[in-house]
Amino acid sequence: MADVLSQGEIDELLSALTTGEKSAEDLLKVEAEKKVRTYDFKRALRFSKDQMRNLSRIHENYARILTTYFSARLRSLVQIQVASVEQVPYEEYVRSIPSMTFLNVVEPRPLSGRFLLETNPNVAYAMFDRVLGGRGTSINKIDNLTDIEKNILSGLFDSMVRSFAEAWSSVVQLEPVSEVTEVNPHFLQMVSPNETVVVISLATSIAETSGLMTICLPHVVLEDVLPKLTNHHWFQEQRRSISPEEEEMMNRQLKKTTIDVAVELGRSTITIEEFLKLSIDDVITLDQELSSPLHMNVGGALKFKGQPGLQRDRMAIQVTDIVGGTEDE
């Protein structure tokens, strides 16, 4: 079957024929030629589009969790969002990150292998400055950290690892453990240079400082959970029924929720001229008869009818009728 041309390609061909840039014979020759598409075996695509899309969803949730945590922890405006999700050879990922950066090697138990959580020094030092009460400015002194600075930064990185487990909880229960923190990516060889890895880039802004954090997930780490990253499994998990304990907890929370209930004594229509002439002791006649029940609105919608009265010297209303549903509703 011949390839189907897009509307843009059709318009381009018609324009070329009209202007004389191409003839019908030239087009026939091009069609007869064998079409070859180059394929780079070093960039083997081992993850489907569905899997990449669901990985993006997971880490968008991770970015939201980190934004909430660091906004409270640093007491500053923090914005973290997914900038890109792509699969590349490990060697290409190493070349794309700074030569001196914070690399946290994490073991995602019970999954196999290890993954990298890379934090740009600008972002790390902005966090460090805010923790110590600064304005969030960044200074790059990654090559001569003191013990105090290492401990503070390790605490921040550990919190990022715990949030990672929370973001993945809908797919697999992880207990990630930080193994070591490196600063030179060329001294860290986790997988072979041609191994395909998924790289999630997180655009991060803290106060006046911005930069990137990246997550490098080798194929060996994701291999066991790949079947759970398909759309079919994803939507099945979303539609799972809630347990009786969860339903009971939701009912308890709903019963504590407050709602606005308003009783309408009646309505009246007057002109603008009459409204402007209103004064003290004037009487406005309502369309509500004394013998008719009053309307009770719940959340702005008519739900009940009732009659007014007193309850322990306080104004009250007795429900006499239910509007638009049964008593259970």
TrEMBL record:
Keywords, comma-separated and alphabetical: Bacterial flagellum, Cell membrane, Cell projection, Chemotaxis, Cilium, Flagellar rotation, Flagellum, Membrane
Membrane topology, record value: Peripheral membrane protein
Localisation per UniProt entry: Bacterial flagellum basal body; Cell membrane
InterPro entries associated with the record: CheC-like_sf, Flag_FliM, FliN-like_C, SpoA-like_sf
Domain of life: Bacteria
Name of the featured protein: Flagellar motor switch protein FliM
Gene3D superfamilies: CheC-like, SpoA-like
Coiled coil regions, renumbered to chain: none
Residue ranges constituting the Flagellar motor switch protein FliN-like C-terminal domain according to the UniProt record: 253-323
Primary localisation category: other
Family under the similarity heading: Belongs to the FliM family.
TM ranges: none
